[in-house]
Design a protein that fits this description.
Shape: globular
Oligomer: single chain
Number of helices: 5
Strand content: 5-15%
Distance between the termini: 31 Å
Radius of gyration: 14 Å
Strand order of the largest sheet: 1-2
Order of helices and strands: HHEHEHH
Largest sheet: 2 strands, antiparallel
Number of strands: 2
Length: 106
Amino acid sequence: MSMIKHKKIYLDYFGYDVGDRIVCEVCQYYYDNMRELNRDFAVLNEAVDIHHISARALGGSKLKDYPENLMAVCREHHNKAERDKEFNKLCKIIHLKKVIKHIEDE
């Protein structure tokens, strides 16, 4: 069975192997920032989807399959990002911080 291209791009860029448990980037952000966000509890859900921050329908999938546009998310946050533009903007910020950290760590 072949892997979906954008998932392979994400895994390769961040150095994950197939089968690795990947935590949802939004859940991780909430967990890391619980005190700042006045949250008592945060759950680290497993990422089950790769979200295109800028939708594939707005420019074709080939133009959107690059690491800065691909974000690992749980189903709840994927659905919310798809229907809520402001939340999707937060997703973009969270993900770009991860990309910057990845570049700095290289």
